[in-house]
Amino acid sequence: MKIAFISDIHSNIHALKKVMEEIEKEGVDKIICCGDIVGYNAFPSECLRVVKEKVDASVLGNHDYATITGNTGWFNEYGVAGIRYCRSVLSDEEIKFLKSLHTHLYLDADGLDIYVTHGSPRDEIFEYVFPDVSDELLLQFAEIADADVLVFGHTHIPMERRVKDKIFLNPGSVGQPRDGNPMSSYMIFDTESRDATFKRVAYNIDAASKSILEKNLPRFLAQRLYLGI
Question: Would you list the DSSP string of 115-130?
Answer without folding.
Answer: EEESSBTTBTTT----
